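request received
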Amino acid sequence: MTNNLTRSRVLQLYKRLIKLSHTWQAVDHPAKTAEERLYIRNETRSLFRKNKHVENANELEEHIREGEARVELACHYKNPYPRLVNLPTYSLPPSHNRIRYKSEYEVEDMSRPIYLKSYEIKEETSDNEEPSKT
Amino acid sequence: MLKTILRHGCRLRSVVNMRFSAPLCNNIHTLTPSNVQANGQIWPHVFVSRRTRMIDQFVKDAGQMRTSPPLTPRDIESRVLRICNEYDKIQEANKNKITLVTHFMNDLGLDSLDHVEIIVALENEFGFEIPDADYDKLYTVQNVVDYLIKKMNVTDRSKTTVSSAPDPRYDDHHH
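response:
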């Protein structure tokens, strides 16, 4: 279902990342240039392959945004590793003793940055998973 | 001061145009008084040895601007096959069996992302950008070779390149 435009955007993003992995220079720790280049290359390969089967247009758009955000952040801060986030302020970690209301889910959804989209852990729900189309 | 230098330089032009071998160059240098005058006065023999060393450096630099040997189709084929073999996603069983008619996706089981990586490697090897619109044409090794031949205007008969660099076979007398 992916039309050619999104497909070419995805491939361009991939190409940009591969080229970045060839020319990356580590500024903070110059001895780790090779390690960071390998990290960039392996990260792009694994995440692009993990999300290869996304069909929903909105999700696809968000994943492209995620890729572009990570590239821009890496180039700007000279650091390819994403900055991890924790729970938002004034919230509690989920626990089975406590009911989480919808507002709490919404706050947590809004606090998650786009560049960590591939790392989200979905809570186990009782919905059936849709069969993935290749 | 400058006039003195120029006068010295002009007088020595015939000497300066010769190419001195390294031992002779060292001998010339040792003919000078032990400490080179640091107050700016340039002795003729010091001037000569410095100029020959500069000229040797220029010759070496010009040699590095030598054009690459003219490409033949066989050369392009071997380079493309080498790059395909170096790609680490390809299974070991297929590695040395890549021929001209191999299709990246059907025969080697690669997907479009791997295809992009191979094309980026080819771009790095041959030194020019391949536009995105042409990716669809490059699914088999034969297509890649033909495309590169067309882009780089490679002809079958090798043209003799005329360059002003000296012959590399006769460069040894500087060592």
